Please model this.
Amino acid sequence: MVRTNAHLTRRALVVTGGLGLGGAALAACGGPGPSSESTSAPKTAKPATIEVLHEFGPNSSDGRWMGELLERIRQLAPHLTVTSTVTAGGSWEPLQTALAAGTPPDISETYVANGASLGAKKIAEPLQAALKSAKDWSVNDYFDGPREAFTYKGDLVLAPMFTAPMGVAVNLELLGRAGLAPPAAAWTWDTFADYAVKLTKRSGSEVEVHGAAMPTGNGFNSMNFFGGPLWSHGGDWADRGKGVVTFHQPEGVAALEMWVNVALKRQAAPTAQPENWKGLRGSPFANGLAALAFIASPALPNHIRDAAAFKRTTVQMPRQKKPGAHFYAHGFFALRASKEKEAAAEFIRLASLPEHVANWNVASSGMPTRKAAAARKEWQDHLRGQPLLAAFNETLTYMRSYPALPGWNEVSIGPEGIGQALLDAVQGKMAPRSVMEEAARRADALLSQQVK
Model:
């Protein structure tokens, strides 16, 4: 699942006395009702009506859990009436439109690349202040990666609900035919390149099966993958203290040269979408057209469903100097412009309860953001029942995401963005060092224009 930020219209689903499933229905379909561990609001709490803007439509796994979450909040805090406004996709631009019109929601959600802009533009209420009296919430309970990604100048501006780290799906049958053992957990990018070449099957000049499915799409499609090689080679997207990009330094160039070597020079991964990948039902990996595939954990259920014809496993991203795994993430924030600040903070607190974070990730195949959520029985039971998630779960202690720099979304996407620059090198349009230096120049120029 790759997130983009296109301009989208809004449609409202109004929740008055509950949305989605009631407590009995939740239990019947496997979703727990409010537990005794949940902290309910005082019976004397002031009634309030609040709006939450989000992109989780009812037909997605995230959307189905969103409906359950709203019902649980209604039961825990009956004084809150929640209006759920669902966008047809990304919520960032609809939020900007609502702010400009003077009709902001009380709570919204967004993608990780927009986190710092919430703080710089003073859109989000800092959570340490909003939830300072909450006994069931602590900024220190978040894993380092999501806490860093959503902290701007010391303020956690967004409560991350789930992360989607990258890993590698492996077709064990194709490995067996090539005489290769399953990759070890600590395999390197050098081993990956060797595997990708040996697993590539050709008929004359045509590639019938690629050794690896590496990204061919612009923007976050390529960047969500590249974060892993970048960090494992010892680099980073930016100097997060100084606010200047660093992905063009030698470590980042080495990571991109690895990608160019596998895809362009050794032709073991596509540089653009192959013809025999077009119109497929299911992914190229599920159709046996790629032996190794980089996927985020929420894509795993589809791989399990679609790849039923062969044995497969999952492993962590390859390493070089150290482990490296990128994640994307979404979460909720309370708006400073809310007229119901206490109610908005209460919604964030209840949504962020460890049991809710755990169950959201059970539903979406994401990875929990809070340590208390990862320790819960329902999450541990889920991991035991879904062994292919283990490789993703093992990244929780070292996974990282984009830097909390205002304007990171804007420097990432589009024809002049970092994502396209990466593909320009992979497609042979520019040398890796040159393309990285030019992308860094453009990114620094745009970032310098943002609110600091």
